[in-house]
Amino acid sequence: MVRLKSGQDREEESTSIFLDAWLTAKGQALRALAEHLFAAIQSDPSGRMRSPRRDAMERKRFVVQNIAANLAHLALSPSHMQGNVLAISTAKTKPTRYERADYPRRILGKTLKDLEASGFLTRHAYRFKQTTTTVEPTARFRGLLDRHGVRFADIGRDAGGETILLRARQPQEGRGDVRRRDRPPPKRLIQYADTEETMRLRAEVEVVNEMLNAAEIAYDGEPVGPIRLYRSFLLRSPEDPIAFNLLGRLWGGFWQTLDSKLRHRITIGGENIADLDFSAMHPSMAYLKATGRL
């Protein structure tokens, strides 16, 4: 389970995958599954249907679809391994540029409890200053995936979501500033104002994402979209001036966490891929240039 400080972002240290607020049920099969979940938690223990206001029902349906899409992603994506759990912050905090402003977060915690009571997920409760709430799909939920014929391509993504991230290293707690050797230095997300530079960087990432989503990338013959990469920049300290000149690597591709032994299952436009060994690529290229052959 990932260890988090309340109200702060941390890099995953184990098998926790953070809730993606922009995932949704695109395909009919996943929409039908989400509607099954929604109907199940609308009944009270006596079996009678509740009758909340229409707008409240739509907000809850939105949350249920998002949770269903995230759990389906956890169960079906080739980048997620057995034992992965979904980390969800249920804190009622003011959204930052990294969070979905229209997400009805106030009903998220109650919806999770209802889904747990109905047997669709297992919830591991938040512990103060130690872990965030994590959930995982139950056998009943996985059975519904099979029964409805949900495929990875049924998962969609609403427009939005920050693709230019800025993180700062956090001072280490404990004695002095000695870093723990068993984990990387913790980082937290930093708010920033948009400039010409950040808008240019975001537009460049959008071009890459559009290209990847149009490239017919598949795993075992199944489409793997929606693909959404982001660039993650670093400040050495939260007190440093805002800048986007450290790191800046692209993250978020399913192939980046995929076991190397499984990468041969990826195809692009129906063709097998060439998996480059970057540690050996540059010496090989230098040898080729010097000798004319590999």
Features:
18% strand; alpha+beta; disordered N terminus
Structure, explained:
This protein has 294 residues and is an alpha+beta fold. 31% of the residues lie in helices and 18% in strands. It is built from six helices and 14 strands. The strands form four sheets. The chain has a four-stranded mixed sheet. A four-stranded mixed sheet has the order 8-7-11-12. Strand 4 and strand 5 (133-137) form a beta hairpin. The longest helix is centred in the first third of the chain and has 23 residues, at 54-76. It is globular and about 75 Å long. The termini are far apart. Mean pLDDT is 85; it is low at 1-14 and 175-179.
* Quaternary organization: single chain
Give the SSE order as H and E letters: EEHHEHEEHEEEHEEEEEEH
Question: How many strand elements?
Answer: 14
The number of helices is 6
Radius of gyration, taken over Cα atoms and rounded to an integer in Å? 21 Å
Proportion in helices: 25-40%
Strand order of the largest sheet: 1-3-5-4
State which percent range the strand residues make up.
15-25%
Report the uncertain regions.
1-14, 175-179
| Intertermini distance | 46 Å
How would a textbook summarize the main sheet? 4 strands, mixed
Structural class: alpha+beta
Mean pLDDT: 85
Question: Given the C-alpha coordinates, what overall shape results?
Answer: globular
